[in-house]
Amino acid sequence: MIEIKNVSKSFVSASGGSSLFKKGKKQTVQAVRDVSLHAPNGRITGLLGANGAGKTTTLRMLGGLFEPDQGQISVDGIQVSQAPRQALARMGILGDAHGLYPRLSARENIIYFGRLQGMEADAANARAEELARLLDMRHILDRRSDGFSQGERMKTALARALVHDPANIVLDEPTNGLDVLATRALREALRHLRSPEGGGKCIVFSTHIMPEVEQLCEHVVVVAQGRSVAEGSVPELLALAGEKHFEDAFVKLAFTQQQQQQQQEVAA
Ligand SMILES: Nc1ncnc2c1ncn2[C@@H]1O[C@H](COP(=O)(O)OP(=O)(O)OP(=O)(O)O)[C@@H](O)[C@H]1O
Predict the structure, then answer these.
(1) H helices of 63-216, where?
(2) Whose CA is nearest to atom 3 of ligand 1?
(3) Lining residues, ligand 1, CB within 6 Å
């Protein structure tokens, strides 16, 4: 189970200078203002937001890459800020950069991660075989990963993230760049992992793709400008927005709030 409570995060970055050789002033970017999410086991929870809404930053905080300025994140009751290693051991994370070792085969990439997670080599190898069946990647298991297609890289990175059979699975825009068949295969794999036969995993994934959310998620958290602005099942969000089509509901829920917020900031 993953619990994110009222997290915020800002970054300080240099703005562009007026000329190539002049340094710009520092600028504060408020990437996440107030995001909350409750993701129980046996459910696929979607974090849905437009570009720059704060999805990746939220998931990076969940993965312990940096601490939130405010708010708390726990995984199976373990606070990520207090015990990051224990929390990380309970998660399989597929980030936006897949970062495979190009000289290693898919199998070796998966086993290497298993060893890092404290698995015996034989157990990690058996798990690589099992995941290769689940993700339909047996034909690439013993190929070196340089030269892999986008879909093959994604599958290998996902298998690597799942090697230690984590109870919680976190995916940042997992279908980016995948074709229709690879997307379907991923969807099927996630449904299986969420089901009692697949272990009743807690799955959280971020996306900006509406059909993906409609087909896969029992619960959706809509994020706009760094805030979680609405949540519920797809039918609940449709009812909340008073719309028939999910895209219209999303635009209404995400951008009406955004306009109101901008008006308030101008007035303040
Ligand atoms: N390290 C950083 N330094 C400065 N600004 C950052 C940093 N990381 C994220 N941001 C800014 O924070 C905001 C949210 O970014 P984030 O990547 O979390 O959004 P996102 O919802 O994942 O977007 P996308 O769908 O485009 O990937 C953006 O304006 C981004 O430019």
Answers:
(1) 84-89, 106-116, 121-134, 150-162, 180-194, 210-216
(2) 11
(3) 11, 13, 29, 31, 49, 51-57, 208
